[in-house]
Design goal:
This protein has 151 residues and is α+β, with helices and mostly antiparallel strands. The chain is 27% helix and 33% strand.
Length: 151
């Protein structure tokens, strides 16, 4: 190996090392917005507390905010509870008008075939997959949503 080859290899290694150090310095300067989870990593207990807490309702707001598909813009009125099947999940709530589906989402490989979101005496959502169909029917017993068998 000639002297020129050794100089080229040494120059290449030095350039790569400087570029790596500059990249690491830039990442440290920018901080967790690139390398981490905003707000930090949460423990399982913190996540359970956050999911169990009621949703805050805006005060003094006028008009209605846009809602995602599978959700309703009606204000919270009662006890919320989540339900899961192999075909998907749903959240229902009991209120003054009866039970209503707050949200629903099919599992991977399934789709929502039919939804009766309420409010009514009972609500239901049907998840359809390639080999099976799951129907989730919910009714209020007392002031709590409960999954019931289809009539």
């Amino acid at each position: 190996m000639g002297r020129r080859s050794i100089l080229v290899a040494t120059g290449w290694v030095a350039t790569a090392a400087v570029a790596t150090l500059i990249g690491v310095g830039a990442i440290r300067l920018v901080g967790e917005s690139i390398t981490g989870t905003p707000g930090g990593v949460r423990s399982e207990a913190e996540i359970e507390r956050a999911l169990a807490a009621p949703e805050p309702t805006p005060t003094g707001a006028t008009g209605t905010a846009p809602t995602a598909p599978g959700t309703s813009a009606a204000p919270s009125a009662g006890v919320r509870r989540g339900f899961a099947t192999d075909g998907g999940t749903a959240v229902a709530e009991c209120g003054t008008g009866g039970v209503r589906l707050v949200s629903w989402a099919p599992a991977q490989g399934y789709r929502v075939r039919d939804v009766d979101r309420g409010p009514d005496d009972d609500v239901e959502v049907t998840f359809e997959g390639p080999n099976r169909e799951y129907e989730l029917k919910v009714r209020c017993i007392g002031s709590e949503p409960v999954s019931v068998a289809d009539d």
